C-alpha cells in the first residue's frame, strides 16, 4: 500500500507590488504563486491583526488586570507538546513582565493525567492554592476539569486554538479564535499565538511598556512546530521571531537547543525549527515530562539551559529509537492492508502512547491517507489513546464527531482540528471504531483527494543552479504549513548513484552541462534508478560541503517523460 503521486505545476501569476530590489524574479514568482504581493510576502509586526478582533479578550484582560492588581496567585497550565510548552513559557514570562508577582506553572503528564485540565490534574494542583488558572493551548474541551477547578473557588481563563465541541466549558473567560461568534480573521493561530495576543491586550490595558517582542522567539518556535497554517498573520509572528533568533537574541533555552541540534543561529530557518528544535522539545512530553522542556525555555542561566537542552537531546534520541521500532511494526501491518483502503487504523499493545502521533504522521505521509495509531494508556491496560493525522480535504475532527454521533459511547473522548486529532477509547471498542472510521473515510474521500499532488513552481533555468539562488529561496520567505517551501521539477540525466545509510539515495544528475549533487532521503526502494529521471526537488545550500555548494533535495522521482500535468 503506497501513495499515488503526481506533479502539478502552479499557475503563473504576475508578481504585483513594489518588491525589494534585492529579490530575484524567481523569488517574486514563487511568492506570487502563493497569492502574495510584495507586502504580503514578508509581513512585518506592523501588519498584525489587532487584538480587539478576538472575542472575549476584554473580559479576559479584566480578569488578568484584577489578578495583577490584587497580587493573586496565577497558575499557567500548559500542554505536553511544543506549542503548549512555548505557550506556557510565554505566559509565565509575559505575566511577570507585566507586573504579576506570583506566577506559577504546571503541565499534565501525558501518561498520568491525559490531555488538558482533567479532574485528576486539578486535584494535584490544589496544593498550589491558585486564585486564577490560565490554560494555554488547551481548555476548550476540558469541561470536567474546569468544573472541578471552579468547584474549588478558582477563576479559570481559557486560552486555546482548538475547535470547540457543541458546548463551551464553564470558564470565567475564553479566548479562542475558533470559538463560535469570533470574527478574528486568522483562525490558524497556534496556542502560543493566542496567549501572546492576550498579553498584548493586557499591556495596552495596563498602559505598560514591557518589551513583549522579546517573547517572539518562543512564539515562532511554537507556531512552526504545531504545523498550523502560516497565513500572513502567523508569518508576521514567525518572521519577527526568526529575526531575533538569527540575531542571537533568543532565550537561553532556545539558543542551547539550536546548538545541541547542530544548527546555526545566523541561518536558522522554519525547517530547522520543524525538524530539529520542535522535536527536541516535544520529546520531553512524549517520553518523559514536559516540565523539563518548559524549565529549559524559562531558564535565563546559560549553563543550566545547556544542561537541560542536553537532556532533551538525549530524550529525543530515545524517542527516535522507540519510533523506529514502532514504525517497523506499522509498516509490516500495512502489508495486509488493501491498496484501496481509504485510511489506516492500527493498534499494537506494545506501542508507546506518546509516540503514536509520529507513527500516524509517517503513515499519512507514506500513504497519503488519513491514519490513526493507537497504544495502551498503560501497559496491558484496557484504555487506548489514539492520535490521528489527515490529508487536505478530510477534516479528521469532524470525521471523529460523525463516528461519535453514529455510534454514541464508542469513543470516550476526542478533540483536535482539521489535520490532527486525538481520542481515547476502550480496547474492546477498537475493531468497531476502525470499521466506523473507515466507513466515514470511504464516504468522504475521492480518488482526487487520495492522490498526493506535489505543486511545483516549475523548472529552474540553468543559471538558477547557483548558491545565490539557493540562499535567496531559503531566506526569502517564512515557509511552512499552508505556505509551501519552493518546490521545482525537471528532467535530469542520472550520471551516478549510490546508497547512503541503507535507506537514502545519493545521486549525481546532469542538466545543461552542469553536474548536480542530489539526495533522496528514504528514497532507496531496492531498484536502480533509470538513466533519466523526472524529479520534484528543492534547491538548498549544501552546508556539509560548504564553499558555495548547492544540493537538490529530491521529494519525488519517476521515470522521465511520465506525464507532467501543467
Which features would summarize this protein structure in a list?
566 residues
Overview of the structural elements:
With 566 residues, the protein is of the alpha/beta class. 38% of the residues lie in helices and 19% in strands. It is built from 17 helices and 17 strands. The strands form four sheets. A five-stranded parallel β-sheet has the order 3-2-4-5-6, with helices on both faces. A five-stranded mixed β-sheet has the order 7-8-9-11-10, sandwiched between helices. The protein has a five-stranded mixed β-barrel with strand order 13-14-15-17-16. A hairpin with a 3-residue loop joins strand 13 and strand 14. Helix 4 (82-97) runs antiparallel to helix 8. The longest helix is centred in the middle third of the chain and has 33 residues, at 302-334. The two termini are 27 Å apart.
Q: What's the topology here?
A:
Blueprint: E1 4-9, H1 25-33, H2 38-41, H3 57-69, E2 74-77, H4 82-97, E3 103-106, H5 119-125, E4 132-136, H6 143-151, E5 155-159, E6 173-175, H7 191-206, H8 216-225, H9 232-246, H10 252-260, H11 270-287, H12 291-298, H13 302-334, E7 344-347, H14 356-367, E8 371-376, E9 383-389, H15 396-406, E10 413-416, E11 420-426, H16 430-444, E12 451-456, H17 467-475, E13 488-500, E14 504-511, E15 514-520, E16 532-541, E17 550-559
Helix pairs in contact: 3-7, 4-7, 4-8, 4-12, 5-6, 7-8, 8-9, 8-11, 10-13, 11-12, 11-13, 12-13, 13-14, 15-16
Amino acid at each position: 500500500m503506497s501513495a499515488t503521486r503526481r506533479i502539478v505545476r502552479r499557475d503563473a501569476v504576475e508578481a504585483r507590488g513594489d518588491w525589494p530590489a534585492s529579490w530575484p524574479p524567481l523569488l517574486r514568482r514563487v511568492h506570487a504563486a502563493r497569492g502574495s504581493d510584495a507586502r504580503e510576502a514578508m509581513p512585518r509586526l506592523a501588519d498584525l491583526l489587532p487584538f480587539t478582533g478576538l472575542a472575549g479578550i476584554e473580559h479576559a484582560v479584566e480578569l488578568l488586570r484584577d489578578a495583577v492588581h490584587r497580587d493573586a496567585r496565577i497558575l499557567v497550565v500548559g500542554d505536553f507538546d511544543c506549542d503548549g510548552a512555548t505557550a506556557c513559557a510565554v505566559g509565565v514570562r509575559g505575566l511577570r513582565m507585566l507586573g504579576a508577582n506570583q506566577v506559577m506553572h504546571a503541565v499534565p503528564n501525558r501518561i498520568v493525567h491525559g490531555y488538558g485540565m482533567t479532574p485528576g490534574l486539578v486535584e494535584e494542583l490544589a496544593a498550589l492554592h491558585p486564585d486564577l488558572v490560565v490554560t494555554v493551548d488547551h481548555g476548550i474541551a476540558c469541561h470536567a476539569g474546569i468544573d472541578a477547578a471552579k468547584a474549588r473557588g478558582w477563576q479559570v481563563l481559557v486560552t486555546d486554538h482548538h475547535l470547540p465541541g457543541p458546548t463551551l466549558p464553564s470558564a470565567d473567560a475564553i479566548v479562542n479564535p475558533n470559538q463560535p461568534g469570533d470574527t478574528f480573521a486568522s483562525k490558524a493561530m497556534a496556542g502560543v499565538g493566542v496567549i501572546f495576543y492576550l498579553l498584548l491586550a493586557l499591556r495596552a490595558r495596563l498602559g505598560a511598556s514591557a518589551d513583549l517582542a522579546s517573547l517572539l522567539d518562543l512564539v515562532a518556535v511554537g507556531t512552526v512546530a504545531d504545523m498550523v497554517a502560516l497565513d500572513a498573520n502567523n508569518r508576521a509572528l514567525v518572521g519577527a521571531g526568526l529575526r531575533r533568533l538569527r540575531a542571537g537574541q533568543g532565550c537561553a533555552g532556545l539558543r542551547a537547543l539550536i546548538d545541541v541540534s547542530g544548527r546555526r543561529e545566523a541561518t536558522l530557518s522554519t525547517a530547522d525549527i520543524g525538524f530539529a528544535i520542535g522535536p527536541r522539545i516535544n520529546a520531553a512530553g512524549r517520553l518523559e515530562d514536559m516540565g523539563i522542556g518548559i524549565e529549559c525555555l524559562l531558564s535565563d542561566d546559560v549553563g543550566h539551559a545547556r544542561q537541560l537542552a542536553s537532556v532533551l537531546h538525549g530524550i529525543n534520541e530515545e524517542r527516535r529509537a522507540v519510533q523506529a521500532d514502532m514504525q517497523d511494526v506499522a509498516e509490516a501491518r500495512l502489508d495486509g492492508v488493501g491498496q484501496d483502503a481509504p485510511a489506516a487504523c492500527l493498534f499494537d499493545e506494545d506501542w508507546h502512547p506518546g509516540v503514536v502521533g509520529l507513527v500516524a504522521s509517517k503513515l499519512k505521509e507514506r500513504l497519503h491517507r488519513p491514519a490513526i495509531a493507537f497504544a495502551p494508556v498503560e501497559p496491558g491496560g484496557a484504555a487506548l489513546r489514539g492520535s490521528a493525522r489527515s490529508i487536505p480535504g478530510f477534516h479528521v475532527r469532524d470525521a471523529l464527531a460523525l463516528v461519535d454521533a453514529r455510534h454514541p459511547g464508542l469513543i470516550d473522548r476526542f478533540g483536535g482540528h482539521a489535520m490532527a486529532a486525538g481520542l481515547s477509547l476502550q480496547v474492546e471498542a477498537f475493531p468497531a471504531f476502525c470499521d466506523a472510521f473507515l466507513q466515514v473515510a470511504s464516504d468522504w474521500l475521492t480518488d482526487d483527494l487520495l492522490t498526493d499532488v506535489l505543486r511545483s513552481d516549475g523548472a529552474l533555468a540553468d543559471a538558477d543552479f547557483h548558491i545565490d539562488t539557493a540562499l535567496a529561496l531559503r531566506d526569502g520567505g517564512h515557509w511552512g504549513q499552508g505556505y509551501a517551501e519552493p518546490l521545482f521539477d525537471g528532467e535530469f540525466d542520472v550520471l551516478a548513484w549510490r546508497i547512503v545509510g541503507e535507506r537514502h539515495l545519493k545521486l549525481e544528475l546532469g542538466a545543461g552541462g552542469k553536474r548536480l549533487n542530489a539526495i533522496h532521503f528514504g528514497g532507496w526502494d531496492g531498484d536502480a534508478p533509470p538513466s533519466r529521471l523526472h524529479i520534484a526537488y528543492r534547491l538548498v545550500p549544501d552546508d556539509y560541503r560548504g564553499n558555495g555548494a548547492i544540493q537538490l533535495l529530491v521529494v519525488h522521482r519517476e521515470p522521465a517523460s511520465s506525464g507532467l500535468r501543467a
